[in-house]
Amino acid sequence: MLPTKKYSQNIYIEITNLPHGGAGWELGTCLWSPVYNTNRRTKTWKLMEKVKTDDIIVHLVKINDLYHFYGISKVSSPLVITENKPAHSGNWLPPYQRIALDSFNPLDQPYSVTEIFKEYESELKNILKKSSSSFYVEYGKTKELRMAQKYFTTCSDDMYDVFNSISDKIEFKPVLNDIDIITIPTLNEPQYPDYNPPSRVSTIVSRIIRDTNLSRQVKSENSWKCQICDLSIKLNNGNNYSEGHHLKPLGGTYQGPDIKGNIIIVCPTHHTELDYGVIAINPVTSIIEHIDKDNPFHGKYLAYKREDLDSEFLKFHYDHRFKNDSPTR
Q1: How far is CA 260 from CA 125, 214, 254, in A?
Q2: pLDDT band, residue 255 (cuts 50/70/90)
Q3: What spatial distance separates the first Cα and last Cα of the chain, rounded to whole Å?
């Protein structure tokens, strides 16, 4: 059963593919598009300007040339314009527009849109009579239902009811959490001196430190030292600081686990390099690899070993971030 729509919420449908935008722009973490079409004059995706915080997004994803009902998420920030280029932006030129999402709930088994067209044909055709703005169209004399050529569209209440009916049938019960970013200072993570709780700030956060309680435990057990350079930042209160990086991301399409085996302890510099896929640990040799062969840590072993660091997640990061996600490789 899908979450009940609030009076203040609108529902939209994203029609996309699994690569989405690449590292930092993954499916379920954001909506994105270029601001202008290829002619550099037309704003084809102007509808995205209407999206507001707390709206609901239904995701339809192309898998093996067929579209599927893939999941649902919630908008966590209004649209912002950025010159930052997604790794998988194709031939689209900046500027880009981006809307942050949270609470991404993927289906255990994506549900074929072809089956939706067969099972709900009469309902879908009736919906089209009320509004032509949808993710599908009637084609030819037979009025066969086919996918429309668009990335983003509105979802009527009647269409949401269809997705809800499917969810009931397959026992898909997503939860859209009300997530607020709360800063809880500790001796090793003191509150920033210039921190003031903001209302809503239109900005791009290129890297989020997902610092769970377990991450803090692992850092404490290892003296807050980076596993790559063996350094720790000394704070003016006498304590040390480091960061925990989840090799398989917790959110988005990956849904990595929050376990010790998935967390590597790093300094902020090497955390950023891991996020952007410019450094990794070879899961077979345990040797550090960097895209810059002159980097001082390229070809070296980790500063210290942890028996609880799982090679499965080192391999995931090595294959998906270091080898695949960078546009330079």
Answers
A1: 50, 7, 17
A2: confident
A3: 42
